[in-house]
Design goal:
The chain is mostly beta strands. The chain is about 10% helix and about 25% strand.
């Protein structure tokens, strides 16, 4: 480092300390003693692990992550030097909560030092007392208090759970907001193969997340291995458990201390699920509408989460399992999942106005897109409200292996419900897997009434569905492996019917209830004119994460969508020949 740069950094750090901005704290597992007093972590003439002399710049250094968290103040940033940190459970106490918003000094930051990679490894030895959690709260579920405004960036989190624990989590925390990005979260799972699936185990877990973002992350082997247990997942978030109250009297955003599972975003993540149950799961129902004739509400229709531009591979149960009102699921790719999207898929939780659009579902072995309607409470409304637009359902089969039930909306226990309010339009069933007499069966309603595409369109006037066999002269995808397996060929030249192609066959109209949202004019998960995100998500790995710039978005995300909320500034990080 040149001398002039050294003086600039010192001056800038002094300016930060004088202005009251957040401090930078460093974790270096090569340190033999903490540097928290007059001897500071920063000295351009020293290497990692050396004792530094005082420079007049307050830069604290600790050998463990736990020491740094204990010593930090709200709004500080903790940078972890490269290496593996095996500290058992690392506790984030509520006393460190930041107040937000995502601006300098108002949130807590924990991430790898720029250009380096930190691995937080619980070694599979974390006890039930710490709920098998590598990083986060000890007691994360209700009625415990939550942690707020934490950003985790460019980290590897692994080794959650223990040899006999019922719990296994990588990061666990209630409430949020959390902003988790450029992380590799893997192998946090119950190791006894017992009943650990009943506790919402997962790579990321918590209770009533709100306004949180999980983006540009890679997930694998979290929750419980080789399991289709409905309670385990890569991301596993519990709801407020107030569904009975809400059905009776309507949703009140101030109830439960204002803590509900709401307004979260999961985007541009990669889920490798060959040994896992679900990619994203919601435990218990999260109602924002009353659902009874007297209390049904539209006021909170923007409270549903957004799940988009993710890739889910080989889920043993489902890619997404949700029971949240007003959920938005769009532009996702599902390949080889037993089921892709399950909405309301339990016996207890009906979903009001959940929307899917522009998803691509390939090789589903049971129900590709499964909706469940059940009147769990006597006074619930009879009508089923749900919307499915522009989805590709490719080579799918029903659970009995016979019928192509790409969209499977069923009534759990009665034949009296009204499905006339359901909308399924512009969905494309490509190379269906059933026999010639069964493959057109695309929808089931009360009494297991199955419709062919023609019968469905007659029943639901104004809708369009398509059904096509594989045609070597009219290929849908650009190739058979990598990103080309999912990207439309020739910018959407595949013909659906007549002059209708993948590029122009979409709904191309306003969202059914969200202001300012337009359902696209193309069909499937991938915009034929903007497909770089597919290769980008498939390439998410440690090498990519290490080189990612803190606070930045990749160049390959679709369009110019800003990261919500606005990207924070990352100033005052020391770079160059520092310890």
């Amino acid at each position: 480092m040149t001398l002039w740069r050294y003086f600039i950094l010192i001056s800038f750090s002094l300016l930060l300390s004088q202005s009251g901005w957040a401090a930078n704290i460093y974790v270096d597992n090569q340190l033999t003693s903490d540097l928290a007093g007059p001897t500071n972590y920063y000295d351009p003439t020293k290497g990692r692990g050396d004792t530094c002399s005082s420079t007049g710049v307050t830069t604290k250094g600790y050998s463990t992550i736990q020491e740094a968290i204990t010593a930090m103040s709200s709004g500080d940033k903790i940078y972890i030097r490269g290496g593996t940190y095996q500290e058992g459970h690392i506790n984030i106490p509520t006393s460190k909560n930041a107040s937000g918003p995502w601006t300098e000094g108002n949130y807590n930051y924990l991430g790898s030092y720029p250009g380096e990679w930190a691995i937080i490894d619980g070694q599979g030895t974390i006890s039930n007392d710490n709920r098998g959690t590598v990083l986060g709260q000890i007691g994360y579920a209700f009625p415990y208090n939550g942690i707020t405004y934490w950003m985790l960036e460019r980290l590897e989190i692994t080794g959650g759970g223990g040899p006999s624990t019922e719990y296994a989590y990588g990061f666990a925390g209630s409430w949020g907001p959390f902003w988790i990005r450029y992380c590799y979260i893997h192998d946090n799972y119950v190791r006894d193969g017992g009943t650990g699936g009943t506790f919402a185990n997962g790579g990321l877990s918590g209770y009533c997340w709100q306004d949180s973002i999980v983006e540009y992350c890679s997930f694998a082997r979290n929750g419980c291995l080789d399991s289709s247990n409905n309670n385990v997942s890569e991301i596993n978030i519990a709801s407020d458990y107030l569904y009975a109250d809400i059905v009776g009297s309507g949703f009140d955003p101030t109830s439960n201390g204002g803590r509900h599972n709401m307004r979260n975003t999961y985007r541009y993540n990669y889920f490798e699920l060959s040994r896992g149950s679900h990619g994203i799961k919601y435990k218990a129902g999260q109602y924002f509408s009353g659902k009874s004739a007297a209390t049904v509400q539209e006021t909170y229709n923007t409270y549903g989460d957004k799940i988009h531009h993710n890739i889910f591979l080989d889920a043993l149960s489902g890619g997404i399992k949700t029971s949240q009102d007003f959920i938005q699921i769009y532009n996702n790719i599902f390949d080889g999942c037993v089921s892709a999207i399950k909405i309301g898929e339990t016996s207890d939780y009906d979903v009001y106005k959940g929307v899917t659009y522009n998803n691509t579902i390939i090789d589903g072995t049971q129900r590709a897109l499964f909706r469940l309607h059940k009147e769990y409470f006597e006074d619930q409304i009879d009508a089923y409200y749900g919307y499915d637009y522009n989805n590709i359902l490719d080579n799918g089969a029903d659970y009995d292996g016979n019928a192509e039930l790409g969209i499977n909306a069923i009534d759990w226990e009665t034949d009296e419900d009204d499905y006339s309010t359901y909308v399924g339009d512009r969905n494309y069933f490509y190379r269906p897997a059933g026999t010639s007499t069964q493959k057109a069966n695309v929808f089931s309603a009360p009494d297991n009434v199955y419709f062919t595409t023609a019968e469905y369109m007659a029943e639901y006037s104004g809708t369009t569905l398509w059904n096509n066999d594989y045609d070597a002269e009219n290929l849908l995808y650009a190739g058979t492996s990598g990103a080309s397996k999912y990207i439309p060929r020739d910018r959407g030249a595949h013909i659906i019917s007549g002059a209708t192609t993948i590029a122009n066959g979409g709904y191309n109209a306003a969202h059914p209830y969200l202001s300012g949202v337009t359902i696209p004019s193309y069909v499937g998960a991938v915009n034929p004119s903007d497909s770089d995100w597919v290769a980008g998500v498939l390439a998410l790995d440690v090498t990519y994460f290490t080189s990612a710039t803190a606070g930045s978005d990749p160049s390959w995300i679709e369009g110019s969508e800003p990261t919500p909320p606005s990207t924070p500034s990352f100033t005052g990080v020391m770079t160059g020949s520092i310890r």
